[in-house]
């Protein structure tokens, strides 16, 4: 019978895992995905190669872990706000999205993928399938719920989710890919979220769609 690791050993393993992922992200950005060897990652992280290979047997597995953790929610409640109030729900999701996109490592992760995409197209697929799509699907499911409850009227929740997240990321994130000093303050980013919510509410809120229908 395999003995369960103690809380101490689990904590040490988690610390080593975090150190490995941090070191790998930095090396991938500096040397490129191909140029950063697993041996160098282990050295930079301050762990043995055996420890690294035990957790991440391949470079692809390590990259997958970086993507998954970069997109992971710190508070699942923010991704699943109470349904029934479209404005409150979208505001919570929008603020969470800003927090996610503004993480220091997020722009670096996108730069790695974009730089290495011609040689390693699987990096783009991994980033899309393990990072972007799970988050996008959580927003689409929330809109599906609001639609079912009648608080929103949407014929295409996938399109609506794309519109909402796009309004936010176009200001908060994408300029960072070209402008190194792009760093809007918290008030500006909160304002973008509020305006995006108001536009979604005006377009898809049940009361507003009902009023438009009555005038036609």
Automatic annotation (TrEMBL):
According to the entry, every stretch annotated as the HTH tetR-type domain falls at 14-74
UniProt entry keywords in alphabetical sequence: DNA-binding, Transcription, Transcription regulation
Instruction: List GO molecular-function terms, semicolon-separated.
Output: DNA-binding transcription factor activity; transcription cis-regulatory region binding
Organism expressing this protein natively:
Amycolatopsis thailandensis
List the InterPro entries.
Homeodomain-like_sf, HTH-type_TetR-like_transc_reg, HTH_TetR, Tet_transcr_reg_TetR-rel_C_sf, TetR_C_Proteobacteria
According to UniProt, the name of this protein is TetR family transcriptional regulator
Q: Which ranges of the sequence are annotated as binding DNA?
A: 37-56
The record ties this protein, via Gene3D superfamilies, to:
Homeodomain-like (1.10.10.60), Tetracycline Repressor, domain 2 (1.10.357.10)
Q: Which SUPFAM superfamilies match?
A: Homeodomain-like, Tetracyclin repressor-like, C-terminal domain
Q: Which GO terms describe its biological process?
A: negative regulation of DNA-templated transcription
């Amino acid at each position: 019978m395999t003995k369960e690791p103690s809380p101490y050993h689990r904590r040490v393993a988690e610390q080593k895992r975090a150190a490995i992922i941090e070191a790998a992200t930095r090396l991938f950005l500096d040397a490129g995905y191909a140029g950063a060897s697993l041996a160098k990652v282990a050295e930079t992280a301050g762990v043995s190669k055996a420890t690294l290979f035990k957790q991440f047997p391949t470079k692809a597995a390590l990259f997958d872990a970086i993507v998954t953790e970069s997109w992971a929610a710190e508070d699942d409640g923010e991704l699943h706000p109470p349904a029934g109030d479209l404005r409150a729900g979208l505001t919570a999701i929008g603020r969470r999205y800003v927090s996610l996109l503004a993480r220091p490592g997020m722009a670096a992760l996108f730069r790695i993928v974009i730089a290495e995409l011609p040689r390693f197209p699987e990096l783009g697929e991994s980033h899309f399938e393990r990072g972007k799509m799970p988050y996008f699907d959580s927003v689409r499911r929330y809109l599906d719920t609001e639609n079912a409850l009648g608080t929103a009227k949407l014929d295409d929740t996938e399109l609506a989710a794309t519109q909402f997240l796009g309004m936010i990321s176009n200001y908060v994130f994408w300029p960072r890919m070209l402008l190194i000093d792009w760093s809007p303050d918290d008030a500006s980013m909160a304002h973008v979220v509020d305006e995006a919510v108001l536009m979604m509410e005006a377009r898809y809120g049940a009361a507003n769609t009902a009023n438009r229908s009555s005038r036609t």
